[in-house]
């Protein structure tokens, strides 16, 4: 499939007043927010749209609940036009090596603050010392010195491999690293652990539409999902021009949290890798060609620096304190009869209320 960047109009439902087909325009670039309360139908609608997207461009979804793999590979027999993802591949139970996490923001994603993140990013590159073995990496960090004497001993031990410290670290920093790191060890690829290690993410993206399944139910799993997502986005960034993918982020607020969540979950100044990458994707990488879909329950949960670059929105019922609440408050939702109304706010600012089609794939 070669996608050159043509804009495509995808039928998503019936316009409420006119009964005409309501189309969603997908350009090679752009950011679309899909917002609604839980169970309203935002994911189902995005799944339906994504089936059409796979016909003409590369698509990948970052999924936290193993939900997409259960649905978009299968036709919905109840749909008028049953459809499913073409050329799909599920990627799950995968990991990166410690040495892949060589930016402080990678470690910030895993909940390690500031100077700790910088220390780990530097040490991560020393494969000659830790061999990408998490236990060895932990041993190394546990040996880091906070006194002059300990530093002399440390430097003597690592002299042969050329690791020399010029001053000891702060005790507080080391304590925070060493209290957190033991919980992260199974985040990393280790020989013989059965986890998938993708040598070449761009190649995988070139070949398939991807369901990147990560599990993100617990707080710990969410840290891992951020680190994985940030890293994948980093690895494919140089190939965006060629790939021009549509990237879908399920529960996007996990990857791109608002300021309040950032302060609560991430103590430091270094911001998490997934957020850094997300910001690049919705700003300077737009010209390379990437269409971003952010699914969330509320705009307020999403990082405002990212949402301000959105050019279209699909809104169901949303919380009262959300932007655009006024135009959504009259929408009708009857879960018992599987009926719902959405509003499409397009890039020109015009808005269209519509009833979505029964999703073409399983939902
Ligand atoms: N377009 C649709 N076609 C068919 N069923 C739908 C559609 N939208 C929602 N549903 C039904 O509603 C349920 C909840 O929708 P879902 O998309 O999971 O909600 P949300 O992602 O907003 O929490 C789905 O499991 C499905 O049964
Ligand atoms: Mg959902």
What is the strand and helix layout of this fold?
Elements: E1 8-15, E2 21-26, E3 30-35, H1 42-56, E4 59-63, H2 68-71, E5 88-92, H3 104-109, H4 114-124, H5 127-130, H6 134-143, H7 148-157, H8 171-180, H9 201-207, E6 209-213, H10 219-236, H11 240-243, E7 246-249, H12 252-255, H13 259-265, H14 273-282, E8 291-296, H15 304-307, E9 312-315, H16 325-328, E10 333-334, E11 339-340, E12 342-345, E13 351-356
Parallel strand pairs: 3-8, 3-9, 4-6, 4-7, 5-6, 7-8
Antiparallel strand pairs: 1-2, 1-13, 9-12, 10-11, 12-13
Helix pairs in contact: 4-8, 10-14
The structure holds adenosine-5'-diphosphate and magnesium ion.
Name its key features.
alpha/beta; elongated; binds adenosine-5'-diphosphate; 363 residues; binds magnesium ion; Rossmann fold; two-stranded antiparallel sheet
